[in-house]
Design brief:
- This protein is 71% helix and 1% strand.
- Helix 7 (102-115) packs antiparallel against helix 8 and helix 12 packs across helix 14.
- It is globular.
- By secondary structure, it is mostly helical.
- Helix 16 links the parallel strand 1 and strand 2 (288-289).
- It has helices at 3-12, 20-29, 33-40, 49-62, 66-83, 86-98, 102-115, 120-129, 135-147, 152-167, 171-183, 188-200, 205-214, 219-233, 236-256, 271-284, 292-299, 316-334, and strands at 263-264, 288-289.
Length: 335
């Protein structure tokens, strides 16, 4: 949960007193994009249309729903062209970066940042598009931008981008920046996301962990930062080994109560995970229910949105299918 959301929730409770846009932010955070879209619909022709469209287009983009995001980005493109509105420009830059139009995305991001350096998503576009040899210079720009901001939370987010820009060439400087961002309020989730991006850009996992070991931190700070960096930088083999251990523990705890255990796969393709769960089920004599095939059959003739609200979470219809598949296996096993 972002710092803004934590503050808003503490001040207002769940939805009490919130505007439609703020309520939509809560729904988006919970992954309820279609509900957020319905809530924002009245805003699209009003005075807050830019804010509403920027918000929902970003959420749809993050969920991989590019066609749906484009419906809201196209009006923002017109606003940017006519008025150079920074919210519209930031949303447009994010969309262009995701669809591979990096030069256009970086040009718009630069234009926004000239007068609105607090727009962290524009910095993120620049960091993600920046060639390795130019990242040190970009890190310097980020440091200057952060120093000029008053808000600790905005500074934290921009210093976090600085950490990502530095990670490939200078792990120690990257970790130092990350520690500064955490001191300003950056949380574990944001730390993990940042270091995952750093690894995706070529940063060395071991180098980042060694940077944590060398950083000027208290033992408590070092332990917490090492935990989060380790979570972000673990490779597939390490992640699957931990998953197998945890699943084995869960199976043992369930069986200790006398419960019958069934293991399920995900409703989308994750071959290594599926293999691991099948292997564990076989070793423990547990029924395994695969979901991939039944969902793939339906997705061959129906849109993804009929079964998933985002790339990984099902619609009500999707969960109903999962329940039916499990029920059929339960009946078969308990006869």
């Amino acid at each position: 949960m972002s710092g803004w959301h934590r503050f808003a929730r503490a001040r207002r409770g769940s939805f009490g007193g919130q505007s439609g846009i703020e309520q939509a932010a809560e729904l988006i955070e919970r992954g309820e994009l279609d509900a957020a879209l319905a809530l924002l619909q009245p805003e699209f022709d009003g005075p807050r249309a830019v804010a509403a469209r920027a918000q929902i287009s970003g959420a749809l983009l993050n969920a991989g729903r590019l066609a749906d995001a484009r419906i809201h980005v196209d009006p923002l493109r017109a606003v940017w062209d006519l008025e150079a509105d920074p919210q519209a420009g930031q949303a447009l830059a994010k969309f262009l970066a995701r669809t591979g139009e990096r030069d256009a995305a970086t040009a718009i991001a630069r234009a926004v940042l000239r007068s609105h350096p607090q727009h962290v998503d524009c910095w993120r576009v620049l960091v993600d598009a920046c060639p390795a040899e130019q990242r040190a210079a970009l890190a310097g720009e980020l440091a200057n931008a952060a120093d000029a901001l008053v808000s600790p939370w905005q500074r934290a987010k921009i210093v976090c981008e600085q950490a990502i820009a530095l990670a490939g060439a200078d792990p120690d400087a990257s970790i130092a920046a990350l520690a500064r961002a955490r001191a300003l309020g950056l949380g574990p989730d944001e730390t993990i996301a940042a270091m995952s991006r750093a690894v995706a850009h070529g940063a060395d996992r071991a180098g980042l962990l060694n940077g944590v070991a060398r950083a000027a931190l208290t033992d408590t700070e070092r332990s917490a930062l090492a935990r989060d960096v380790r979570r972000a930088t673990v490779d597939d083999a390490g992640m699957l080994a931990v998953l197998e251990q945890h699943m084995g523990t869960i199976v043992d705890l369930c069986r200790a109560t006398g419960a019958r255990v069934f293991l399920l796969g995900y409703p989308f393709a994750m071959p290594k995970h599926e293999e691991l769960v099948q292997r564990l089920a076989t070793a423990r004599g547990i029924p395994f229910v695969s979901m991939v095939g039944p969902f793939a059959t339906r997705l061959a003739t129906e849109p993804h949105s009929a079964w998933f609200v985002d790339p990984i979470h099902c619609t009500d219809r999707g969960y109903e299918l999962m329940a039916r598949l499990l029920a059929e296996r339960l009946v078969s096993e308990l006869r």
